[in-house]
Amino acid sequence: MTITIIGGGIIGLTTAFELTERGENVHLIDAATSDYGTAADGTAIYPAASHYAGGMLAPIAEVQFQQDALFPLMTASADAYPSLMGRLSRATNLPTGYDTTGTLIIAADRADAEHLQRTRAYYRDMNRPADPVTPTQARALEPLLAPRIAGAVSIPSDHQLHPRLMRRALKDALTRRGVTFSAERVTDPDAGDIICAGLGATLHGDYPLRPVYGDILRLRAPRPILKHVVRGYVNSRPVYLIPRPDGELCIGATSREDQRTLPAIDGVHQLLRDAIRLVPAVEECELLEANVGARPGTPDDLPIFGHRTRADGTRQLVSTGYFRHGILLAALAGKVGAEVACGAEIPPIMQACDPARFTH
To answer: Where in this chain does the record put each FAD dependent oxidoreductase domain (predicted)?
Structure first.
């Protein structure tokens, strides 16, 4: 028997990989013929969220207020990543950009330092440790930080990977294992055994998914600028700078819900201004790309994971709505998705993600 997955983003690919780890035959269908969101029939679709993601594996730094139900998923998935990356590295020779250097969170001024102190207290209340460091200690770790930063926190356990490299590595591993791929737009809601189609999952059920856009920039530096992921607050606005293994730098953190499917001028300006405030050497970089991804958001920010019943009475597994945490949650989603597809019960950790919660 062949298990068919619809959706070739990070969730679909990781689920396919975990299925092959269990000896299953897999066929993967994706509407896009490229990473950029062009459908097989030539029409435009939502920009691929995985292609434009930052790639931070940050169950501590990504914590936000009033998302308590999401925290166990983030932690469990971060814990699952070392195993996933070890097994993937044995299945392909391609790089993934997996980097365990750690994360620094920086406050631009005294008001931001107070905000960072409150955030760290929240981390502590949620049993998520973050180590305070002085601005001098932070600059010892990252010498090109601005000289007048007002505060810093170190989170060694928050890591990152390069989503574009990760997807290529997964595709290579799956191809080596005999997984077949096709590029087509699926119109039958009952087609497929596992639905990992992001915003496209609305075809398969009445799910309250909405596109949440995030502007993201790719820069090339004349010399290495950072070793750690640097997240920061500038006038209480978040910004992140991610060093890539190929000498590039990724900048992001905007989040908007409007109709602009191209990079927003205000977002690009804000990202560059705030990044330069924290790391002045960003001014020396070249701009390679400004783009935007559409993340599949849900009303409660939890994923949608569970079964729906097809017209013929059989069940179809839906795994979507991972919003801002698709890369981080992929290890858990892939592992649990494969287990459930092979006959296991949905584990307690995923029960809050039941699609039925939206039918009441």
So the answer is: 3-339
Cα–Cα distance for residue pair 319/261, rounded to 1 Å: 24
Which of 209, 305, 248, 282 is CA-nearest to residue 54? Answer: 248
Looking at the DSSP assignment, which residues form a beta bridge with residue 248? 220
Q: What pLDDT is recorded for position 38?
A: 43
- Checking 79-83 for CB contacts under 8 A at 24+ apart, the result is 80/331, 80/332, 80/335, 81/57, 81/159, 81/331, 83/331
User: Could you read off the pLDDT of 257-273 as tens digits, one per residue?
Assistant: 998 989 999 999 999 99
Do the domains at 2-53+162-209+299-353 and 103-156+211-297 have one common CATH topology? no
Exposed, middle or buried, 115 (CB in 10 Å: 0-12/13-18/19+)? middle
How far apart CA 61 and CA 327 sit, in angstroms, is 14
- Please tell us whether the domain made up of 2-53+162-209+299-353 is placed in CATH 3.10.290.30: no
For residues 165 and 171, give the distance between their C-alpha atoms in angstroms, rounded to a whole number: 10
Q: 325-352 pLDDT, tens per residue?
A: 999 999 999 999 999 999 999 999 999 9
Residues 6+ apart with CB under 8 A from 288: 218, 219, 220, 248
Residue-range domain boundaries for the chain: 2-53+162-209+299-353, 103-156+211-297
User: Which ranges of 225-347 would DSSP assign to H, the alpha helix?
Assistant: 265-278, 326-341
CATH of 103-156+211-297, one of 3.90.550.10, 3.30.9.10, 3.10.20.80, 3.50.50.60: 3.30.9.10
Strand 248-252 and strand 237-243: pairing?
antiparallel
Rounded Cα distance, 168 and 171, in Å: 5
Q: Per-residue b/e over 240-265, b at no fewer than 16 CB within 10 Å?
A: bbbbbeeebbbbbbbeeeeeeeebbe
> Confidence class of residue 34 from pLDDT cuts 50, 70 and 90?
low
175's enclosing H/E stretch is helix 163-176
How many CB atoms sit inside 10 A of residue 349's CB?
A: 15
Contact 220, 286 (CB under 8 A): yes
